């Protein structure tokens, strides 16, 4: 039986960089989930009788919310829902399921790399029929609806057993619980040379993967552990836990420190990797060398033709604005376009759909391609392994050869987390206020060549996204970029992106902190971070 339940709106349900993310207790307020889900459905048309995909990264509250979504999808008229077994679907796997089964869209329950648990983070994101995050036009419509919503629709029905593969019905709507891994693993086999990777690993090449007690465990066990023969012992923290074992499932050098230590040890394996809460991010560490996400994008693009799925070459490369310019040089050499988009994977969707870009990447540890419409952590790992299998060189040798050809973009991101929102806004406002006067002046000894607030005009639909980050470029090609994160859940997070280009033939073997020291000083001088935030050090350096 369908009931229309009166509700009152919340004013804070504005989706951020990637969906609505809040603390679990916030989501547990009366009707908070129901309002948002109904606002999603109210913003869509034509889904009656269609298929919805639902899954998440297994974090705390995932199962409860799935049951609510099932009852509301039935009440709103969907014909079928595909649910990952146990409620598990990595974000790229969900994107694949949406595309493969021609679904109308999908609801992905994740707060990505943010911690999980009863007092930690939860998130809801809507993806459209192309498998990608809803564009701003849709998220804006959802937000507008949340502010005035006065009722939601739900059926009365018992919980569906989402642990058993098979079909059940909720008030006439089919619910199919599907294997979380099978479709994704099959897709990966079409893209990469599995026999070559198997031979590499069989020949003694040692691979380790840290699933960080998050969603990629089952995927990595099946693909890397079994199909590629690395064995189950090669996968650490392989069981998805609702609280990620109390850890922060963010594959960076701080939160994947154990992996880093292991890869720097004398007897390190040849290749180490990790993924995040929902499986869309990646960390790549070769024996004794960390590969920055920006470099990884460039190196993957330069070598992608070695994988069967990309043997025909790339049509274009896209990167988010704060991502380093390393990929630009690869695009230039390949004679293909390079697109610079705002932060947020959703901005790649149009380029991928229009066949204008094949590979995309972001400094925030996201890389992916046109195989789905999300960034894809395991995809990046497998492409690296495919390249390693074909080049039969170490990660370090590949990286050094790359820099020798293209030059090196020394790069770091400094995050100042949970700072006072008003202080962060003031810092950005002050910066914006002086942009026009900066070119031609010197900051901490460096001459400013350009200063602006990045605005993007989508080349496909002409939509404009303004105020996407302050960029200050220096003579010689170095730059610092400032923006506030759109994914944090406590106060504001200031991100400072620092990049210095060293051409081929220059000093390519410096330590990154030393290479960037003058720029770090310039960032402080121009933004007055200490004065605004009271912080003398970033919380995280990646
Ligand atoms: C999301 C987005 C990414 C973005 C990242 C960081 O990733 O999908 O495009 O780069 O957030 O965004 P921000 O700098 O605004 O915090 P994820 O992995 O959290 O879904």
How is this structure best described in words?
- This protein has three domains: 2-179, 3-Layer(aba) Sandwich (Alpha-D-Glucose-1,6-Bisphosphate, Chain A, domain 3); 184-406, Alpha-D-Glucose-1,6-Bisphosphate, subunit A, domain 3 (Alpha-D-Glucose-1,6-Bisphosphate, Chain A, domain 3, 3-Layer(aba) Sandwich), CATH 3.40.120.10; 408-541, Alpha-D-phosphohexomutase, C-terminal domain (TATA-Binding Protein, 2-Layer Sandwich), CATH 3.30.310.50.
- It is built from 17 helices and 27 strands.
- A hairpin with a 2-residue loop joins strand 8 and strand 9 (173-178).
- Helix 2 packs across helix 3 and helix 2 crosses helix 5.
- A seven-stranded mixed beta sheet has the order 2-6-5-3-4-9-8, with helices on both faces. Strands 20-21-24-25-26-19-27 form a seven-stranded antiparallel beta sheet. The chain has a five-stranded mixed beta sheet with strand order 11-10-12-13-14, with helices on both faces.
- The N and C termini lie far apart (52 Å).
- The protein is globular.
- With 542 residues, it is α/β, with parallel strands linked by helices.
- The model has no long low-confidence stretch (mean pLDDT 97).
- Residues 17-18, 112-113, 280-281, 343-345, 362, 364, 366, 485-487, 495 line the site of 1,6-di-O-phosphono-alpha-D-glucopyranose.
